[in-house]
Amino acid sequence: MLINRVSGLVLPYSTKYLIDSVIIKHRADLLRPLVLTVLSATLLQGITSFSLTQLLSKEAQRLITELRQKVQVHIGRLSISFHDSNKSGTLVARIMSDVEGVRNLIGTGLVDFVGGLISAGIALVLLFHISPVMTVIAFGFLGAFTLALNKAFTTIRPIFRERSKINAEVTGRLAESLGGVRVVKGYHAEEREENVFTQGVVRLLNNVMRTLTATSVMSLSASVLLGFVGAVIMYVGSRQIMAGTLTIGGFFTYTMLLGFLIAPIMQIVQIGTQLTEAVAGLERTQEILSEHREDEDPRRVVTLPEIHGRVEFDHVSFSYDGIREVLHDISFVAEPDTVTALVGSSGSGKSTTIGLISAFHAPTRGVVRVDSVDLSTVKLDSYRTQLGVVLQESFLFDGTIRENVAFSRPHASEEQILRACRIARVDEFAETFADKYDTIVGERGVKLSGGQRQRISIARAILAEPRILILDEATSSLDSESEALIQEGLSYLMQGRTTFVIAHRLSTIRRANQILVMEQGKILERGTHEQLYDLRGRYYDLYTKQHGVESNLFLAPGEGGLDTGEEANEKRQANAPGIGDALRMVRGR
């Protein structure tokens, strides 16, 4: 850059010798070497300009890529509570857009700005050599203007930060709207979403207008300053020429060099807004990177070997905000090769309990232990590799069936993948597609039914072979026929594992080793299905209400050898004319 800028000053500075020595003194012998010097300097300037642009522009793009990777990795390692507090679309915008300003900081903007400062520094020395008086006058004006510019950019930087925030919000909402297009169309809400987006882009427009007004004022001020300084230099320079203290060549050289001194000031106005926006974006990026990753907890120093799967809650309480507790003094033990079911009304604390088992959160009070080891001291990667989760809303990536099943074990063999698919009954629909297991499922699995997506999710968990398994409404998306088909797969999946089940359909948990009935963050009842049914408490109320069973019609299991309420109800429905009989009658007609 230094070579580039020194080479660029050769042409204007040679003007003094061209006028004073070659033209006025008629020294034709100096013309040839002067021209060759200018040509050589120009060629050198061109080569260095090309090299700088190639080097810095490409490095800027590499740095943008590295920053995006760094921010994405960091966000992926942040806690669940952080993700719960930030929209995914907003985070995407911050990953992709906020780091873009590096291009202006490292790319050609850096060449123009820093190179301009180098040229200005060299030009200032040469200007003092030619005319100290004019230089002091010009430098005084430029110094005052630079201070004013600095204050102006300090003022507009918050505006750029606000722009990044608004842009992230608008992008996030747009992503949500497009992702939920079925809901939008289902409720004929296109116009409402259009209005929300319009309000967002209008906010963005107003922000841009404010910055454009500020930069326009700065451009006007710079132009007036340039004209004012030019007029002063013209007046003072002419007086010095007439006084014989300055040559005509010196005056022409001075005016050309003065341009190199003023150019960085003008460039500040032109690219200063870009640099300010870049700094604002990088400040927002730094805010993200300053968030503590969940694996940076200094307490997490224990690496778990292969676990047996004994999970213990020892007087555990938990609060999301540090004020209101959502779990109160929870204690229970889940032994290996057992099934623990969590039931209760919405908001009773079931999902929070599962979140603590998954180490998404740490208890506010009490201890969660796995194989007698405090889970809050365990390195997360050593634990979660032994954890399997099947959620109520099965999430699939926009890839093939095979890729989604193999997500839990990317290096699994084809035989292992197909075996998991057979157990989860994925093969029954995958084999019917033209591309079979290479069928693209679409974004979030939109090309498949809810039951098909859930079967893939179960196959994914089977392939992972976890020691601790969490089934969060794992069969909620399935019809009765599909549920019956994959019960065998679930039974296989639960063998030899510590399984936790959240289920609102209580018929799916009757064989659980222990059922925890939760209400308002507390364990209200615990026991097996038969024990809780006999207790005639909250579980009994939930069970009979769900299955339409009156307590005075059916006895509890074991009373007089009668069927359970559910079994009797099923028999009663089977013996009575139902939908199937009606359909057969219609077909007969």
Describe the structure.
The chain is an alpha/beta fold and 589 residues long. Among the domains are: 233 residues, ABC transporter transmembrane region fold; 42 residues, no CATH class. Helices cover 61% and strands 10% of the residues. The chain has 21 helices and 10 strands. Strands 6-7-8-3-9-10 form a 6-stranded mixed beta sheet, with helices on both faces. A 4-stranded antiparallel beta sheet has the order 2-1-4-5, covered by helices on one side. A hairpin with a 5-residue loop joins strand 1 and strand 2. The N and C termini lie far apart (92 Å). The C terminus is likely disordered.
Question: Which properties best describe this structure?
Answer:
single chain, 589 residues, alpha/beta, ABC transporter transmembrane region fold, six-stranded mixed β-sheet, four-stranded antiparallel β-sheet, 21 helices, 61% helix, disordered C terminus
